[in-house]
Amino acid sequence: MLYWDYAAAAPPYEEVVQTMEQIMKLHYANPSSLHKAGMEAGRLVRRAREVCAAAIGVKPEEILFTSGATESNNLAIKGAALQYESRGRHLVTTELEHPSVYESCLQLQQRGWEITFIAPDANGIVNPAAVAAAVRKDTVLVSVMHVNNEIGTVQPLKEIGALVKSANPRTLFHVDGVQGFGKLPVELNVWKADLYSLSPHKVRGPRGAGLLYVKEGVALAPLLTGGSHEEGLRAGTENVPAIVASAKAVRMSGEGRQQLYDQLVPLRDRLLHFLSGIPEFVVNSGEEGAPHIVHFSYPGMKGEVMARKLEELGMAVSTRSACSSRLAEPSRVLLSMGRSAREALGGIRISFGDKHTFEDITALEKALIKAVQDLKIAEGGVNK
Ligand code: PLP
User: CB neighbours (10 Å) of residue 372?
Assistant: First the structure.
């Protein structure tokens, strides 16, 4: 089976697996405990914080460990909303966001917050001027993702950050960086980002730890209350093995970013070229997008049916993001780009990483051709 679902979960580095095992066996003590073993666990968490901070060019005190980027996004949005409610009850985000951002905004909307959702253009790119035009005096936060998890488009964060801050300097800017980190440069200062979420398991780290950068001076209301862990912002005993192994993955993928980019772009471009030659497919991602995500639709054919067929042929792919793949509705992201419901139902996401080769792409191309033939026979022609 060839695995094409790196954007959902990337296989961990061998060093990450070893670190997890080693820490679980040797450093199981609670980092809050005052004995030597506890202090050693606490030292490991501190070191991990320094490593993660260095990887994105911030101060260790600005890094918060969570359970994953879903929690980081929830905390950034709801934590800022609750903390700064006296400034207003308005947020701005986009139609492209991951459910952990989108649903957090919808939850606030149900509680009386006003949310402006900005639609992207037909290529899946948000217009910075449209974001800025939505910012008001009472806008507490703007949240825009770096790379879309479904179609891989890259948002113009520099322009968005600059325009948001000139529209209202007090409005916080949150970036969901999950699909960009390890593939594209992270420029928090250039983007003027106040909050930034990162998910180690997308960059060959373990599940169970996430990161949230919180710029010095920005306050958040905690969502988890209890002990004084993470400076009181996130109560709960630290997941030391996942945190330490995450720091390893974040360092390694940050250092290997350019090399991975150079390796993936030719693979992606070859696949894009192939897909554009198949008349049944509509390609939804482009060469300006992230290097690891390719997305196409097969209008009239459900993505799940195509994905199952590809699995029979030895290819593990996704229909969109893993979190939404069980939904029967058309993709919200594709609809927001103006795609038809037929196109938005038939999406396939192929995402890859350093282990893939041109031979793998050749095998995938053959499987795609066979899948179209088989499905056409089975359905008696899907485009009718
Ligand atoms: N944001 C984006 C863009 C994602 O792709 C994902 C996961 O697919 C998340 C947030 C959530 O990350 P996690 O799996 O760490 O909760």
Answer: 19
